[in-house]
């Protein structure tokens, strides 16, 4: 049942060079620290170079410079981490998800399900929705009205597409994610909140990935949009009418408020927030738990917050923070008086 | 299938004045920037006033001062955004949710379901729970024991009411929300955590809205309470025994820890936190990602955190923050010595 | 139907001393402020000592010093809160969860379900997974392939174990939690993200508790690990390959990024974040919404952030924060020049 490959076979399949014995057999992958004979590891970060001597790995993916002194078979790659990622997919267990609709699923009469799609148990699919070729809709997913799931998409389990959500191809969505819920649109009207109807949808480009329990609200009038290859980690909140550029990645617990526009190739750190109606240019990096309070027009790294301190020292600094303006004014005043 | 209204008809229905041709037909709503002929837009924020000249909208809701120069039919409102919100509901697609219980639903023998309620597929409802008139329980919802869902409530899909959750009328809950889970009550006992039973419930007032994947824990002994017309966005965490006053709105990813008491008409920004056992008075505004570390007794706006900076500058300020107390002490010392 | 106990009976059952009438009957528990005759309260925090005179409670659990002047029957405990927690379990409603598999559940042919386990409606269980004795799998749970649910575990409702999740005994998981989703592993490869397969699993020790909508990703190569008696509140994000030591508790909305290692008996405050690959020693306390940006090697309390201020004052301090380095340099320069 376990797949076995030779180093030479892997090299050929992924366009790598072999240095050393190409016939050594590989049955799995592991970190250098944990690898045993018969396993393949990788060396990407030079910090771990000293593990080459002690690892049990039979084959290691590495750069050519490292390969010269490697005591085992080396697969030589310009980018060892990317090469390893490709090789590792060979050892990923594949769940049995045959084409067809589970007998418990509840599908609207006018929904269109490709015959090669897999629809799991306890799935419901609403009116006028489409599920494309080879798509996998795992157990407990809810797809509402007027949704499109593109070819090769995978909704792992318990994913909700509320309404008017259109997924491109090969979009992968993890359990608990909710796409297309009402945006948070409210008007105060004579002392009570008036709900503003959310008439837009959500458009997700090809090859996006959406993490577990992440939410993407649908737009108020226009759509909320993720361009292609956007990667969202878990527990993220995307407000209505946000637009996220291609190849941007957001780490866990980050959030973008309504109508924020985030560029391409941005990296948004864990727990970071972007206020509504701001624009962030391409290739901006926001460090963890920073709050973006104004638009960003230059690529680069941005931060807010204060460093971690022991609580006693922090209390002193925090107290001074409250006095900052007064203290500086006082000093300047003092300077003036003494001059 | 598309609804059509005349400007004059809308004016009459919503108590607005018409300026211009009242017979123009409206088939949809849009932003001024995106609107095409046959659509209705709105002008609330003066910043967008210049869009009046270029919009394709056939009708625009606006204030009387703007209407005088408008090149299209105007619907005149004191509060154009609220008027627009009301008009837009006419164009909201309505899902087909007929009265009755889906054959797959599992309902406890002693649960009471109003005959006008809609119970969707894969719903389970526990012992002694009640579902009121015209309530909609969408697919995959779990309602535990001893819950009450008031008339006109809508649980969109995959909502969980764990136990002892009592909803007023017209409460709307989005997918993935969990109400009535155990509060986080622990006692350290001889080196191990001892779980404190959570015997209270959750009470939610009329017209509240609860966002996707938001959690509201049930109380330890008394109840966790949301008064009427409270609006919670997505991914919010409300601890046990919290009380939130009427008409308060909390934005995405905000949180209130156990036994916090938040007043009426408060606005809690995205990602903001409220520590446990604090009190916040009515009409307090907490800006995004601020942490409320002490009770608030005066209405007004409150903040914590530092502004966003480029990372290089931020590192310098952050290093200085750590030294603040020492630096100020040194300067004062220096002042003293020099005087 | 309501259970009734005498003070003397409770004392005997839990190893406490009685002072006063041991025959008084108890039918419920409450806070001192809300308790009525027939109910039992507790006094743990000296701040509430003055409530002893006014409470309606017939019996109060308290320390011996307080008991001497108590106007009602006292149950004397060294740790009144822990003793109360134990007593309160007697009054917790018990849901009816009989052994057996609900007829709607979908179980893989090679899954092994103990005959004493309860499998609720709309549950799916994947290939090669095991559910142990007396475990309770509530409605709508999804258990994927190769999972183990230990004896006495309780998955309340709508919990997802994606794949390769192994729970010890008596683990309690609240609705919406997702364990074993893909870690957020990405490699940038010629301008596009390449997904790194996540081949590890999740291991959860005995007596852990996982809050509602909390996520624990599975490891990339090795496992993500929670040691025994770890307590996670709601909305928490645990990245791949994180390790959390025994008896550590994390409050709502906190997060630990990939490969972080948190020690034993730590307390992580609400909304706090731990960056990836860091180590936190045993018995560290992180205050709410702090960001751990470096490893912690000494037990103690740690913080970041700034205190809450009225917005006007905060704006001044925030502006000064940006100038901190310049201001300090200027002053030092000024000092030098003037000397």
TrEMBL record, chains A, B, C:
It catalyses: a UDP-3-O-[(3R)-3-hydroxyacyl]-alpha-D-glucosamine + a (3R)-hydroxyacyl-[ACP] = a UDP-2-N,3-O-bis[(3R)-3-hydroxyacyl]-alpha-D-glucosamine + holo-[ACP] + H(+). Keywords: Acyltransferase, Lipid A biosynthesis, Lipid biosynthesis, Lipid metabolism, Repeat, Transferase. Its EC number is 2.3.1.191. The keyword Lipid biosynthesis applies. Pathway: Bacterial outer membrane biogenesis; LPS lipid A biosynthesis. GO terms for biological process: lipid A biosynthetic process. The active site is at 240 (proton acceptor). GO terms for cellular component: membrane. One of its GO terms (molecular function) is UDP-3-O-[(3R)-3-hydroxyacyl]-glucosamine N-acyltransferase activity. HAMAP family: LpxD. Belongs to the transferase hexapeptide repeat family. LpxD subfamily. Homotrimer. This is UDP-3-O-acylglucosamine N-acyltransferase.
């Amino acid at each position: 049942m376990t797949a076995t490959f030779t180093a030479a076979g892997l090299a050929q399949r992924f366009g790598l060079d072999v240095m050393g014995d190409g016939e050594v057999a590989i049955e799995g992958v592991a970190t250098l620290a944990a690898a045993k004979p018969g396993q393949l590891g990788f060396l990407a970060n030079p910090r771990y170079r000293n593990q080459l001597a002690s690892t049990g790995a039979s084959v290691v993916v590495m750069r050519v410079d490292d390969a010269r002194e490697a005591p085992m078979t080396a697969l030589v790659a310009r980018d060892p981490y990317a090469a390893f990622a490709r090789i590792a997919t060979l050892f990923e267990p594949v769940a049995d998800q045959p084409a067809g609709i589970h007998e418990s699923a509840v599908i609207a009469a006018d929904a269109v399900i490709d015959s090669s799609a897999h629809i799991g148990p306890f799935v419901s699919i609403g009116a006028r929705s489409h599920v494309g070729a080879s798509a996998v809709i795992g157990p407990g997913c809810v797809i509402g009205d007027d949704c499109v799931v593109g070819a090769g998409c995978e909704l792992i389990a318990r994913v909700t597409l509320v309404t008017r959500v259109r997924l491109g191809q090969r979009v992968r969505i993890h359990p608990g994610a909710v796409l297309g819920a009402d945006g948070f649109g409210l008007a105060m009207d004579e002392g009570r909140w008036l709900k503003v109807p959310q008439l837009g949808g959500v458009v997700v480009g090809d090859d996006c990935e959406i993490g577990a329990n992440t939410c993407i609200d649908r737009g108020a009038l226009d759509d909320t949009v993720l361009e292609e290859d956007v990667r969202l980690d878990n527990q993220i909140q995307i407000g209505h009418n946000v637009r996220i550029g291609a190849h941007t990645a957001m780490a866990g617990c980050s959030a973008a408020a309504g109508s924020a526009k985030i560029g391409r190739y941005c990296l948004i750190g864990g727990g970071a927030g972007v206020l509504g109606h701001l624009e962030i240019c391409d290739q901006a990096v926001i460090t963890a738990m920073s709050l973006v309070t104004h638009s960003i027009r230059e690529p680069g790294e941005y931060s807010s917050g204060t460093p971690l301190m022991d609580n006693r020292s922090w209390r002193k600094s925090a107290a001074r923070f409250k006095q900052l303006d007064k203290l500086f004014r006082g000093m300047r005043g003092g300077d003036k008086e003494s001059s």
